What we know:
Blueprint: H1 2-53
Amino acid sequence: MSRKGSEHRDGFESASFIKRYMDTILVRVSGFHAMLCQLSSLSAYYLLVSLSVRP
């Protein structure tokens, strides 16, 4: 019976580890997405300025 309880505890620990890992990935992905949005808006602004400056 104690062996079954230890197996259950190991599974619970691995599940919490997976959840923490997914949270970290989500935070990094959202930060990367925000950076991509900033870069795309900057490049669009640069393209617009270069097009308007050209005769």
